[in-house]
Task: structure prediction
Amino acid sequence: MGSKAKWVYAFGEGDGSNKLLLGGKGANLCEMTRIGLPVPPGFVVTTEACLAYLKEGRLPEGLMDEVRTNLAAVEKAVGRRFGAAHDPLLVSVRSGSAISMPGMMDTILNLGLNEKTLVGLIEATRNPRFGWDAYRRMIQLFGKVALGVPDEPFDRAMTLLKKEAGVQQDVDLSAEHLQALSRRFLDVVREQTGQPFPDDPWQQLETAIAAVFRSWNGRRAIDYRRQFKITPQMANGTAANICTMVFGNMGADSGTGVGFTRNPGTGERAVYGEYLTNAQGEDVVAGIRTPKPIAAMAQEMPSLHSQLMDLAAKLESHYREVQDFEFTIERGRLWALQTRSGKMNAQAMVRTSVEMEREGLIDRRRALLRVPPEMLEQLLVPRLDPAFKGQPLATGLPASPGAASGMIVFDADTAELRGRAGEKVILVREETKPEDIHGFFAAQGVLTSRGGKTSHAAVVARGMGKPCVSGAESIVVDVHERVAQVGPAVLKEGQIITIDGSTGAVYFGEVPTVEVEFSHDMATLLAWADEVARLGVRANADAPNDAQRAREYGAQGIGLCRTERMFNQIDRLPIMQDMILADTREERIAALERLRPIQTEDFRGIFKAMDGLPVTIRLLDPPMHEFLPTAAQLELEIAHLRHFRETVDAMREAPETLKLLNPRLHHQYQESMGPVVATLTEFRDKHLEDPVINRKTDTLKKVKSLSEVNPMLGHRGVRLGITYPEIYEMQIRAILNAAADCVREGVDVQPEIMVPQLATVEELKRIKSYVDRIHAEVERSSGVKVPYKFGSMIEVVRACLRAARLAETAEFFSFGTNDLTQATFSFSREDAENKFLPSYYEAGILRDNPFEVLDEKGVGELMKLAIGAGRGRRPELKVGICGEHGGDPTSIRFCHHAGLNYVSCSGPRVPIARLAAAHAKLREAEYLAAE
Ligand code: ADP
Ligand code: MG
Ligand code: MG
Result:
């Protein structure tokens, strides 16, 4: 190292903005000192010194000299001397890194005490009890932190002493008791370490600094950093803050407490916190006595209360942020010991943002940027009552946020039945399928024992804004017995459970929840966000009521309406199945004609809900077999029906058979069996089961013929539209007719017809020709002009590469990043998430799940390529993204920079996306600098 390193900064000297070097606590102690707040004198030993210590295994050369110089300055300022026999200076040695890690690292108080300085302390305070108490605390804390002595022998000595003294609580111990205890504690240290307790204050100080540094690599601290993804760029090493001790336990005019400049639970502008008189800082945290609310201080110590209010006001006006601070009052004098930005819940964050902006404390930019978009989720879904403290019955994945209670049902039909009867139900399944969709509509929430955060259940529930817990593997669902086993417990259909899709917890019984509140403050903040953002936000919505809700969340249109969701409803599915099972084109068209009015009605509802805003409708996408039961299911049902037929036959023959066995029995039962046999014969002759068996056999044949090796890469999307034009034609007609109706009614409709799974230009042109033809027909028959746009989903790699030509026909692109990600990685999503992605994160091959956070380097490059080529051919080309990434703030930021016009996400994520879009705009410079 060339120039001499500087390891130590006095509080009056350090740069309050340099948290990386000084740690958060140290930087703020410097800052508070600089602006004239009452901080006990002290200095910071830097995080660089910590890193040097951890590397070399000893404190760097020259460090202790700097410590001595700085401590001399402190001695001068307070007029007391470290290690002196009269009125000695005591200090604390406190840890603190750039990112706050509450309780993860260590602090030692009352450093500098030994038998000699203790006498001086007692003499100066005229308080032997206080002196001995400080001493025994110091021995234990130093013993534990610096010398590695466990708490247990200290606690044992304490318990023993209390028994001998016949007292219950620590505070009942006299000075003599505490003196005896200190002696025992010294013995504990000697026994445990084989060394006497270090008497020399300087040795104590040096050892303590090293111990604080080591705590950076303590087990707790390492785990914490891993859990909260704290990288060395964010915080590297801890500082050691040496701070003059001030005592809150010197009588009734002393005390200690913690405060927030505003209420962290509600955001209300009122100092909030607690204090204890005659106590030390750690007592508040340890809960030894019940602290009083800060408001009570106005009566108890009015002049200190007003000093405290003054301190809070100064902190806020300086930091321009809600502060969370520690203070101590020593004999009527207030000291500030720590401050940091207050951690608040979402409600408080939103409210303080709006209010601080109005007060002129912060500008709009700051008001928006200080609220992390994801945080809004807390306000958009019902939550469990925060006061609830129960143990979960089982835990799965937090698949769709929000909490809900209801009775267990094991299948979608029952869910619908009970739901219609006005009952609250939770659909509990091993996993869900598209044909369960009506159960989702009826249920309050969904619980599955298998599947990840992107399983069918999770994706559909998120789309509907309903809570979902997926993959709760400890629950064994038995649909046939209609029970679910969780360890020794058995849950029956009809029993009440509560699921919390924000945490993955499942509880027995009904847990009270707190409802959603889309507050006035949130509306204000989001309106500011919309003013700033360049990127628009739309919602994915498949039904009129979803569209209505999306609008309430502030969606600027619908970016994805999945028409197949409409076919899955219970009254429509059979018609859809007729269509699929049709042997001829005529039969198929007949079924489609029955579906058309239903679809038209749905579109009309959606258009009306979105009056004045664009609605992007995707033509049928999934493979047809998704609308049919599985082969296994059908085989089972056919077997049951055949068995039933045989049973009826056997019963009919029962009387004759009985005769063979025992004529007397036959005689006895003949009378009663007669009518039964007659009914069965009649029943048998009607052959009621035959058509059912036939239909199921036909379906089975069809299911087998539709079965594909890779359905997701198979006969679906535009491929269906090409091979069965009548399906797409029906949908296009329904869209345009609904639009024509709306035009006549004066509704401003902006339909956008979107083709899925497109790979070639020719496919797009074919579908466009259907649209042109039908559009002309509709305009002719309705007599009104029907506006519409035509575009393509971009979710196939080849489509990205052919974007320029596609843009000749397509007026808009919408990236389907779920499929595009699968195609780019050649990962099938379910397999990836369930099998190998976790080990990829572990091994550091991938940092994020590419199905949750858009892969900018791969998928993102393809998108940029397609956008560039498409806009090159058609400059006004509108580009959006549907797909799960549209609601993810990191991905939204990328979309902003890639020049998309809008993102589309599930309704409840719209507010999050709106705020994220504003953040992307406000942080443009940062992003570009990092590029
Ligand atoms: P943490 O980061 O765990 O809050 P701190 O370093 O803030 O640790 O200290 C723990 C407790 O000791 C706090 O209550 C703090 O207020 C108190 N404390 C620390 N230094 C001093 C001091 N110099 N004088 C009085 N109390 C102190
Ligand atoms: Mg603290
Ligand atoms: Mg897709």
Summary: The pocket of magnesium ion (ligand 2) is lined by residues 326, 338 (CB under 6 Å). The longest strand covers residues 333-341. The chain has 38 helices and 33 strands.
